[in-house]
């Protein structure tokens, strides 16, 4: 697949889009403005991560906080007993309690600050969640420990009050380590984004007006400059070839494994690898306007967006906060009645410390990060992660015909003059003149046929389009149009219906040449069904999803393609607004996946529960689709559905691991089993929590993308 194929216009015979419309289409690859993005020098060590409700934790700061906190924790462990038990390696000296208190205070206010700041943000929004739970645990442990030091060393109470500095310090370090691991995992899972940036070379060979070549930094490259690309080099930016030919490997960008022949006028994508030829090209996109930058933005936006499951995880954490608060207060009251303050306070503290939902906080983000990376590596760009959660409820898969089920590479099978004053060559010349400024697949077929027959044609002027009906323009003072059969029917123009049905039954898309109310000729163009199209339809049916074809093409052609791939429900002669209405109609009976080429299909892509753009990385599909299939292969739809289901399973499993631990540990820490002599202390809980986190991470990283059987 070459870059021009990736930027195709509407492919159905009744849906054409002129260049003026295309020129006005902007790519919305995210809310942020990247400015001039130098992807080759991105520093991922300074990545920020959303720690809940908009609070950002900086990767570099977190790493530094962990190491500083770890260093401070070592003397605390050496001088502070664990739950009142002095370990063999521990030391004590006059004033050691105060040293521990000072170190513990630094740990709390320095190492614990990310969690406290996150809790503040959550509470301001009146949505306590994971950061609030963590902050509650470390705050209670710190306050109680300061109380213990003052009680023991100032008021000399008896018996001595055990402090929680050992637990506080190790808990902060464990939490910081866990979040550092999480962020490293997310970044490693995001290596597909890094790889996109690394595809670009550091410099480009810019050709000056006098023909001399100068190497410039990629960040200094500008749109409109001419660059030379030598054999074996990476192409520095999106560009259009102006001289030379070569074979270009775009596999790392598009997922297409074979080398693609490129010649004058063809588009090339920055980051793809040039073959044995050399060429010069004019730069069409750099920085945030380049294809790779837009793909990178898509992936990063997908990572940063909050899915419903993540919101659910935060809600679960909120419930746990209230549960822990209630259980801690209740346990305190009960133990005050049953025993005394010296027993009640440690039990309450244990409940609050145990409640820290580290594993729960990692449960969904790690799975989504892994899933996003796997998808990107396989040419599936997930723009909206919420879409993945709809897969288990899909009932219908509505899909466009041309470009989705068929290749969109049309060739002229029949060209006939219907007017005595015009020969077949005259008809072809007029049609080519009208389509000379279009990249529509049907137009490309006509232009290719004219070129092959060496037909001279005059490009039309004052061209305009009537959506779903045809292309019009002036040639030598006469207005002509290349129109669909719908235009003829709408204007009551006479044509041979039997001839039309015969050509359409062969699978052709039919266009007519008209001048005023006179039909001058017709062209019948055939397309080829994609090899994986039938496999896609069969797979959808096996999953209980009903495939439906929606196309602007004629009914006969649509029926032939549908029969070949196994689709029973076919809707033809559709305008863009018709498709959108049908999406809403099917949604009344269940969740809908819509697969289209992303131009005139944009309303339907936006309306569907899952909008999937085939073969588009640079046009309006980016704005309207949830998922983009870079390689234009229908088999990738199957792969996405499998990956989405596996992702949802992993999310559910991890949520059970995270939340299930808390539901069990909180009552144990409160002393439910105290009558039989079992009490769960904070340190044991922290160790178990860290093990739970490791399980969650391993489970997330075990997510795999299943290869499609041929």
TrEMBL record:
It is found in: Cell membrane. Pfam families: E1-E2_ATPase, Hydrolase. GO terms for molecular function: ATP binding; ATP hydrolysis activity; copper ion binding; P-type divalent copper transporter activity; P-type monovalent copper transporter activity. It catalyses: Cu(+)(in) + ATP + H2O = Cu(+)(out) + ADP + phosphate + H(+). Residues 198-300 form the P-type ATPase A domain. It is an enzyme of class 7 (translocase). GO terms for cellular component: plasma membrane. The chain crosses the membrane at residues 98-117, 129-151, 163-181, 316-338, 344-368, 655-678, 684-703. The keyword Transmembrane helix applies. Keywords: ATP-binding, Cell membrane, Copper, Copper transport, Ion transport, Magnesium, Membrane, Metal-binding, Nucleotide-binding, Phosphoprotein, Translocase, Transmembrane, Transmembrane helix, Transport. SUPFAM superfamilies: Calcium ATPase, transduction domain A, Calcium ATPase, transmembrane domain M, HAD-like. Its EC number is 7.2.2.8. GO terms for biological process: copper ion homeostasis. Belongs to the cation transport ATPase (P-type) (TC 3.A.3) family. Type IB subfamily. This is P-type Cu(+) transporter. It comes from Levilactobacillus senmaizukei DSM 21775 = NBRC 103853. The lineage of its organism: Bacteria, Bacillati, Bacillota, Bacilli, Lactobacillales.
